[in-house]
Design brief:
- The chain is α/β, with parallel strands linked by helices.
- It folds into three domains: 25-236, Rossmann fold (3-Layer(aba) Sandwich); 237-271, no CATH class; 283-492, Nucleotidyltransferase, domain 5.
- It contains 17 helices and 24 strands.
- The strands form six sheets. It has an eight-stranded mixed beta sheet, with helices on both faces. Strands 11, 12, 13, 14, 15, 16 and 20 form a seven-stranded mixed beta sheet that branches. Strands 18-17-19 form a three-stranded antiparallel beta sheet.
- The longest helix is centred in the last third of the chain and has 18 residues, at 495-512.
- The termini are far apart.
- The model is unreliable at 513-521 and 523-540 (pLDDT under 50).
């Protein structure tokens, strides 16, 4: 081989652009082998920095080779791996092969933080610098956040966000530790990027992460396992790493905790043991895709059925991108009860919230509405009653030491529309919700509810969402569960009793109507006589 002395900006380990190289026959043969087999290339030419041994050749474990073969063969791959398994190093080594032996390839390395993404790019750069010059492409740009090679291929490193790769065209996207990207960012990114990258014929998406609760990574993984999407799932167990046995496991748990080991090494999506719902039950709760969903946050799982009874439980926020408006619609016709529709949104104004609630409640056979009124929910209840003239709004009343009870009143007297979430209400609701879910008396297939249940944990003497999470939909179910304990609810779900209650309400309305006054002016008016002979005069 002969080459000139040109390097990139004085770095003798990097070949600059427009450097002519003469290959020996042996090098031509090696180049072809490397181009055709990424594992051969990695094990023979990629060097990594080992914490104990320094710069060494990358000798891959069997599970790493299997993952690279899958990535090389398939377009969409999602990998669930424990900590410290060399997953990032393996992928970065493959990406180096990807840009070296293919022209005009654009690759994005995205991580939950920009510094982490750039660290991954730095690993790739180290491996690149120690390649023999005859395997290198000339370097055009060599920056902290990106590199550009002479064959037109480039790599960019950035934090995962909906705008991270906006305006670019990418052949391969690597999402590192995607489970640790904040949920709202992950959702926005995936919904905006996936349609673009999937439209190509050979474009690739590679998602690699250790689990971190039920989030977008969990959803993609579960859909992949159940063949509901195009991703190929790759899973690695902690004991597939040489040297890891039960003694190693005991030491790790002793140095950290069993909960941390469960998440970081056993790759459990549910790490906390302090959840209200038993973790073994949470693990087997399966979600379904809604049959209808819109941009406002309404998800429908079952359309209303004739003669079915429904309850809608409503939670209200101030619509300031902090807490969420939420409601759940439950089919209460028979036990087990079923969640058939949900809503979650933190953007719409409380003033227009009733405009969304009313048509859905009407569609679900004039569902019985229970509004949580601790904050501004009472305004929602009042608007539904006074402006929309919606009748089936449930009321509550305080009964001294008995606390709050569901009332059959219309909001008048001592009763009030809606329900206040007191400690007693929440305690009873949580207890009943736990029992109903674990005994399959309340069926839930909504992904967002299951996601909230996983982070609904013990806090002092109560339960609430973990820091950084929310529990608005779960609290709707807590109030629904409380509702099922009320005598009036049991009467509502009894069809014969329901007819009697309806007739009583009609009678009460009739009795409360104030009769019109009449002025006798001597004129003879047209009259209408009913079957009892009563005359109904025309009112002017």
């Amino acid at each position: 081989m002969t080459e000139n002395n040109s390097s990139y900006l004085g770095n003798q380990n990097i070949k600059g652009s427009n450097v002519r190289v003469s290959f020996t026959p042996e090098q031509v043969e090696e180049y072809i082998k490397c181009s055709e087999d990424p594992i051969y290339f990695i094990e023979n030419y990629v060097k990594i920095v080992n914490l104990d041994e320094g710069l060494v050749n990358f000798k891959m474990y069997d599970f790493q080779k299997d993952m690279i073969r899958t990535v090389h063969k398939d377009r969409f791959v999602i990998a669930k791996l424990p900590r410290q398994t060399g997953k990032s190093t393996s992928v970065v080594s493959y990406l180096l092969h990807f840009v070296l032996f293919k022209d005009n390839m654009s690759v994005a390395i995205l991580a939950n933080k920009q510094d982490i993404a750039r660290d991954l790019l730095a690993k790739l750069k180290v491996a690149y610098e120690y390649l023999p010059k005859w395997l290198q492409q000339g370097v055009v740009e060599w920056n902290k956040g990106s590199i550009l090679l002479e064959n037109g291929s480039r790599i960019k490193a950035a934090a995962t966000s909906s705008s991270a790769i906006r305006g670019g065209s990418y052949n391969c996207i690597f999402l590192d530790e995607f489970a640790y990207v904040p949920p709202h960012i992950a959702d926005d990114f995936y919904s905006s990027v996936y349609p673009t990258i999937s439209s190509g014929q050979e474009t690739k998406i590679l998602i690699v992460s250790t689990p971190n609760g039920l989030n977008m990574f969990y959803k993609i993984w579960t859909d992949a396992e159940n063949r509901r999407n195009s991703f190929i799932p790759v899973e690695v167990h902690w004991n597939q790493v040489p040297g890891r046995d039960n003694e190693w496991k005991k030491k790790q748990i002793a140095n950290t905790s069993e909960q941390q080991f469960r998440v970081e090494f056993e790759c459990s999506f549910i790490g906390s043991t302090n959840t209200l719902i038993d973790p073994t039950k949470l693990k087997i709760m399966a979600y379904n895709d809604p049959i209808y969903k819109n941009d406002q946050g309404v998800w429908i799982y079952e359309y209303p059925e004739k003669d079915h009874l429904y309850t809608m439980v409503i939670d209200t926020s101030r619509g300031q991108n902090i807490d969420y408006h939420a409601f759940v619609v439950v089919d209460i016709t028979t036990i087990p009860y079923k969640v058939v529709a949900t809503f979650k949104n933190n953007e719409i104004s409380p003033i227009i919230y009733p405009n969304l609630i009313y048509p859905i409640a009407k569609k679900y056979n004039d569902a019985y509405i229970l509004v949580e009124i601790n904050d501004i929910g009472s305004q929602i209840a009042d608007i539904l009653h006074s402006e929309f003239e919606y009748d089936n709004i449930l009321s509550s009343v305080f009964k001294g030491r008995k606390g709050q009870m569901l009332s059959s009143g219309f909001g008048g007297g001592t009763s009030m529309f809606g329900l206040r979430t007191t400690k007693a209400v929440k305690r009873l609701g949580c207890s009943l919700m736990k029992s109903m879910i674990e005994d399959d008396k309340l069926l839930i297939t909504d992904y967002r509810i299951i996601q909230e249940l996983v982070t609904f944990i013990t806090k002092r003497t109560s339960y609430e969402a973990e820091v950084g999470h929310n529990d608005d939909l779960v609290m709707c179910l807590v109030l629904f569960s409380w509702l099922t304990s009320q005598e009036y609810f049991k009467e509502l779900t009894n069809l014969d009793m329901k007819k009697n209650i309806f007739n009583d309400k009609i009678k009460q309305l009739e009795e409360e109507i104030v009769p019109f006054g009449f002025i006798e002016d001597g004129r003879k008016d047209e009259v209408e006589v009913d079957n009892s002979g009563n005359a109904w005069y025309t009112v002017f």
